[in-house]
Structures are given as structure tokens and as C-alpha cells.
TrEMBL record:
Disulfide bonds: C14-C44, C24-C34
Entry similarity comment: Belongs to the complex I NDUFS5 subunit family.
Record-given protein name: NADH dehydrogenase [ubiquinone] iron-sulfur protein 5
Assembly mode: Mammalian complex I is composed of 45 different subunits. This is a component of the iron-sulfur (IP) fragment of the enzyme.
Function: Accessory subunit of the mitochondrial membrane respiratory chain NADH dehydrogenase (Complex I), that is believed not to be involved in catalysis. Complex I functions in the transfer of electrons from NADH to the respiratory chain. The immediate electron acceptor for the enzyme is believed to be ubiquinone.
Keywords: Disulfide bond, Electron transport, Membrane, Mitochondrion, Mitochondrion inner membrane, Respiratory chain, Transport
Subcellular location: Mitochondrion inner membrane; Mitochondrion intermembrane space
Main location: mitochondrion
Ranges of Basic and acidic residues composition bias in the record: 58-80
Keyword Membrane: yes
Record Pfam families: Ndufs5
Membrane-topology descriptor: Peripheral membrane protein
């Protein structure tokens, strides 16, 4: 990552975010000041928040398309 070159030989997609985080770490008095930049860098690398949001949207679309069958309260009188 330190070289700045990605797999295609051009600048890596997260290089600018890394440089921002690295700059913050080199100038801050406490590492906790750079937490948001670290989170941005990890999100750029792994896309966890993006995938989580996409999954939530897809689940809601499926729920709306197929009805609310799974989220209805159970009828307790139907048992034994």
C-alpha cells in the first residue's frame, strides 16, 4: 500500500484514503483522533458497511415482494 500502485499499475483505489489516515496519524497527539479516518480506510478496503446496507435493502425488497409472511406474529392458540 505504501507504494501507491494498485493491481493495474495505477494508483490504488484506497491510496488517497490511506494517505489521509497516515497524515492524520503522523500529526495527531492521540491516535483516537484519527478513528473516523481509519474507519473510512477500512470501509474502502472491505466495503462492510456498503454490503450490510445492500443486504438490508435486498431483504426489505424481498419482504415487500413476497408479503410479510415471516414477520407475522405466531398464533399461540394453534399449538396443541
Amino acid at each position: 500500500m505504501a507504494s501507491g500502485f494498485g493491481v493495474t499499475g495505477k494508483k490504488g483505489r484506497c491510496y488517497d484514503v490511506w494517505m489521509d489516515f497516515s497524515d492524520c496519524m503522523s500529526h495527531c497527539s492521540m491516535p483516537a483522533e484519527c478513528t473516523s479516518r481509519r474507519d473510512d480506510y477500512f470501509e474502502c478496503l472491505h466495503h462492510r458497511k456498503e454490503y450490510s446496507r445492500m443486504n438490508a435493502i435486498n431483504k426489505e425488497r424481498e419482504r415487500q415482494a413476497f408479503g410479510d409472511k415471516n414477520n407475522k406474529p405466531h398464533d399461540s392458540s394453534a399449538h396443541h
